[in-house]
């Protein structure tokens, strides 16, 4: 902790390695000013013995389950770092953020959330977005996010259905990409998993990227 640079702003605490190779932002409480929405990943079972039918369906339900939890955001890495170096650099920052949380539980609570961008194909397109979000918002999601920042997904949520969605209705490509991190985010995913973040049961509402959670011990 003593070797890190920690800058506190209205948006949270920016943690950076001394050599400038990596940084991230620790946000004390998520969604208090503007709700942040995610899809909860669930399941329903359809069974009929007479028809020899047993089918498990993955479901998506819009909600803001992580309101009030702390968040790791804006993970940034210097160009030219290899995958192992990226994972190591982010791992040091994640450990520092976890330690800061445990030192000040009154400020951060007991859970830490991290979102990763969802998988994209060789053309840079998100199958999940094309199957779901694009049906409700005809604009360019990258442009909207650049203009609105993290608030973009809060505005998008107002356009999406509140009813349970069966993932199978979205097609095979969207099913395969749900909660799958983009290839460029794999070093960050490795660092988060090594730091004790659990397998995702929530996904981003735009590109279906994984939302991982770490809960402080005790």
Automatic annotation (TrEMBL):
State which Enzyme Commission number(s) the record gives: 2.3.1.109
Which keywords belong to this entry? Acyltransferase, Transferase
Whose protein is this, by species?
A: Roseateles hydrophilus
| EC top class, as a word | transferase
Q: Does the keyword Transferase apply?
A: yes
- Specify the protein name: Arginine N-succinyltransferase
């Amino acid at each position: 902790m003593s070797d890190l640079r920690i800058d506190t702003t209205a948006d949270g605490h920016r943690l950076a390695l001394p050599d400038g190779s990596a940084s991230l932002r620790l946000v004390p409480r998520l969604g208090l000013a503007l709700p942040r929405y995610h899809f909860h990943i669930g399941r329903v079972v359809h069974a009929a013995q007479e028809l020899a039918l047993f089918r498990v369906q993955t479901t998506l339900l819009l909600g803001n389950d992580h309101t009030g939890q702390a968040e790791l955001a804006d993970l940034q890495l210097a160009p030219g770092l290899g995958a192992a170096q990226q994972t190591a650099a982010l791992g040091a920052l994640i450990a520092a953020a976890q330690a800061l949380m445990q030192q000040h539980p009154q400020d951060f609570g007991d859970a830490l959330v991290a979102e990763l961008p969802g998988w994209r194909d060789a053309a840079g397109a998100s199958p999940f977005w094309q199957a779901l979000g694009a049906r409700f918002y005809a604009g360019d999601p990258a442009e909207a996010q650049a203009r609105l920042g993290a608030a973009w997904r809060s505005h998008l949520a107002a356009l999406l259905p509140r009813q349970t969605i069966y993932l199978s209705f979205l097609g095979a490509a969207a099913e395969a990409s749900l909660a799958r991190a983009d290839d460029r985010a794999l070093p960050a995913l490795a660092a988060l998993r090594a730091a004790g973040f659990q397998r995702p049961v929530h996904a981003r509402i735009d590109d279906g990227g994984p939302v991982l959670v770490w809960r402080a011990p005790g």
